[in-house]
Amino acid sequence: MAKVLISPIGTGYRIGEGPGAYKVAQYRFEEDDQTYTTSFIATALAEKLQVDKILFIGTAKSMWDEIYYYFTTQGKQEIDMNYWDQISNASKKSDHLQEWITPEILQKTMKAVDQYLQYSHPNSQGGSRSLIIKYGLNEGELLHNFALFMELTDCLEKGDQIYLDITHAFRSIPLFMYLMVEFLGTLQHKNIEIRGLYYGMLEARRELGYAPIVDLKTILDLSKWIRGSHEFIQYGSGYVISELIKGEAGEQKNLIKIAEDINDISELVNINYLTDLRMKIQQLRRRMDSLEIVSGITSYILPQVKEFIVQFTHIHKDSLFQLELSNWYFKNKRYGYGYICLVESILTHFCEVYQLDIKDYKQRERMKEIVKQRKLYSRLEKLSQLSIAYWEINSIRRQIAHAAFYEGKNNSFEATIQQAEKYHGKVRELLTSQELLKIDQMIPLEDILISKRGRSYG
Question: Are 35 and 109 contacting, i.e. CB atoms less than 8 angstroms apart?
Fold first, then answer.
């Protein structure tokens, strides 16, 4: 595990034919009064954070010669004047059409950076590198730069801690760094942790007398909150948002319980325990209704979470909850769970009408007899239609349960997907019809299993 600083550099200020350089500034971190007087904020960050290596990003025109000179002298090493002249001349004559600076030429410069880090922090691991990017004048150059930024992930090892500096260079570079961070964070690449996003606020020097170094990591955290809330609302995956709420909850026990409820809901969605899921959603709604005023990012996210769960909490019957859940699954393209919920909503409906325990397996199996005896109950139009729909939907459910290896498969996956919302609409229409709401008055419970009598109802 290493601490890695990623720092862009620009061309600096050149006087005549001299090397480029940044003006010396006094930098200060928010949490302490120590002042770092330097022309390179990277050295202030490296000293404060005790980093192991620095990844410098710049164009061929950037002041690589000044990087070499500054870090060599600060590391108490001897300047190689011929090499310094070489990279200085190469940098000066480089432009957006021709690059005379390459990572190979800069190997000696990066070695000087490592020597400085080891001088400042003897336990540093080394491994500093340079990244030469294009100016980003068109889409091709922007895509080229994006590919290079993605290659930076190959320089990182499992468990590395990353610190980003966005003070200097082209304004497009922080955007690419942000995309790289999103890539790392979203894919959990190598379990790499972004520990800071720093900006040296040079424009505040006149007012404060120094340039404050501000940690903008809150912006990255906001991105996590947005992604986490989206995952929960769209897919029922609240693991990220749950951890973020816990991290901001402090001593607020009710907020911690809300985070735990969101995590439990995510587990129940994934395992599809529908009865428990409904109870947990109702519990979360009650907690949110009684929640005291919250601050921070949570105060902006919780209303979105509440709006999402409200659609399920106003439902007074388990069958309608399962029906609504199947619709949500279909809309979010989780078709397997949607078909399971749709089938179960039919059996739950009959259990409710006949006042049976919806959790009792034997009773649910008994309710299948209603839709099995299609000919027996042929005069009941809605029941007959539901029977047809049930067996079609259940056939799809079985195909899904058996990974489409089920014998007798006659549906393509395209048809299964296209028919999902149609089946949901049909089942909703039938289950809310007066005939099926009062089916117990037409078919007594004791007669459901008596199919041999040939009795006809209607």
Answer: no
What is the full DSSP assignment across 214-249?
A: EE-HHHHHHHHHHHHHHHHHHHS--HHHHHHHHHHH
CB atoms inside a 10 Å sphere around CB 248: 19
CA angle 299, 302, 306 (to 5 degrees): 145
What gap in Å lies between CA 47 and CA 38, rounded to an integer?
11
Place of tokens 């950037």: 62
CATH number of 3-215: 3.40.50
Query: Helical H runs in 50-166?
Result: 64-74, 81-93, 107-120, 139-151
CB atoms within 10 A of CB 293: 5
DSSP state of 21: B
pLDDT band per the 50, 70, 90 thresholds, residue 17 = low
Q: Reduced to 3 states, what is the DSSP secondary structure of residue 199?
A: strand
Q: Can you read off the two tokens belonging to residue 229?
A: 């809330």
Output the pLDDT for position 361.
Answer: 92
What's the angle, vertex CA 359, arms to CA 358 and CA 364, rounded to 5?
60
Q: For residue 373, which of 432, 300, 443, 268 has the smallest C-alpha distance?
A: 443
Task: Find, among 317, 319, 309, 314, the residue nearest to 341 by Cα.
Answer: 319
Q: Confirm if 278 and 319 have CB atoms less than 8 A apart.
A: no
**Cβ atoms within 10 Å, residue 433:** 16
Residues found in the chain: 458
Q: Phi and psi of 35, rounded to 5°? A: -105, 135
Query: Alpha helices, DSSP H only, in 162-297?
Result: 172-187, 205-208, 217-235, 239-249, 253-271, 274-289
Tell the residue number behind the tokens 């904020």, with chain if given. 41
* Cα angle for residues 94, 99, 103 (degrees, 5° grid): 115
What residue segments make up the domains of the chain, in order of their start?
Answer: 3-215, 226-313, 318-447
Q: Please tell me the pTM assigned to this model.
A: 0.78
Q: Is residue 420 within a helix (H) or strand (E), and if so which, with residue range?
A: helix 420-431
The DSSP call for residue 213 is: E
Over residues 374-387, the pLDDT tens digits come to: 766 778 999 999 99
Half-sphere exposure of 408 (CA within 13 A, CB side): 6
Beta strands 25-29; 211-215: pairing state: parallel
Sheet arrangement for strand 3-8: 35-38, 25-29, 211-215, 193-200, 161-165, 3-8, 53-58, 129-132
